[in-house]
């Protein structure tokens, strides 16, 4: 957004695209923070009986037993998380990519905040986690589309496709090739090109002009 936003709207990116991009970002972050900070479904003494009624024991994978750490009857499909130190109903996994802001000293920036998920994914927040994955997937593809359009517009307004270069073999001037256009844009717009390439691998096979 920092590098591409000032170059929009343009011939290929409308104001509507800007609003859609902001909406998709907001949606992804909404789902992310809800997955991070919502209760994943912690099981304790006060709600253990209620949670036990959610799922039946199949006596194949899940059999009635007590959690030796929490000292409660473990509901079916629950798991004790050694990191959170709690039992989680319908536990899926402990996600290491959400949950808190961590301030780290990283030279040359004295204070850098990393967003990390340090929360379990369980019965109460797995919907938010799935929405976060979907939102991130949409954001990657849409970001690739927007950045590619910005780069295409840069090629158009600067008439890069008509640049003349000196052929190292013949030492004669010739028109720039498509591959050389890619290389030129990668050098002159390094950040935007990196975003376009990293957003989605399928974009590598698309022709931009």
At a glance:
The chain has helices at 15-37, 48-52, 126-157, 178-188, 190-199, and strands at residues 42-43, 65-66, 73-74, 79-81, 86-88, 93-106, 109-121, 164-166, 173-175. The protein has 209 residues and is an alpha+beta fold. The strands form four sheets. A three-stranded antiparallel sheet has the order 1-5-4, with no helix packed on it.
Outline the fold blueprint:
Layout lengths: L14 H23 L4 E2 L4 H5 L12 E2 L6 E2 L4 E3 L4 E3 L4 E14 L2 E13 L4 H32 L6 E3 L6 E3 L2 H11 L1 H10 L10
Antiparallel strand pairs: 1-5, 2-3, 4-5, 6-7, 8-9
Helix pairs in contact: 1-3, 3-5, 4-5
Average pLDDT metric: 82
Radius of gyration equals 25 Å
Beta-sheet strand percentage?
Answer: 15-25%
Structural class: alpha+beta
Number of strands: 9
H/E series = HEHEEEEEEHEEHH
Total helical segments: 5
The largest pleated sheet is described as: 3 strands, antiparallel
**Proportion of helical residues:** 25-40%
Gross morphology is: elongated
Number of domains: 2
What separation lies between the terminal Cα atoms? Answer: 23 Å
Strands of the biggest beta sheet: in what spatial order?
1-5-4
Low-confidence stretches: 100-114, 200-209
Q: Please, could you describe this protein's structure?
A:
- Residues 63-99, 116-188 form the Palmitoyltransferase DHHC domain.
- Its EC number is 2.3.1.225.
- The chain crosses the membrane at residues 20-37, 128-147.
- Pfam families: DHHC (PF01529).
- Strand 8 and strand 9 form a beta hairpin.
- It is elongated, with a radius of gyration of 25 Å.
- The chain has two domains: 1-34 and 130-209, no CATH class; 39-124, no CATH class.
- The chain is α+β, with helices and mostly antiparallel strands and 209 residues long.
- The strands form four sheets. A three-stranded antiparallel β-sheet has the order 1-5-4, with no helix packed on it. A two-stranded antiparallel sheet has the order 2-3.
- It is built from five helices and nine strands.
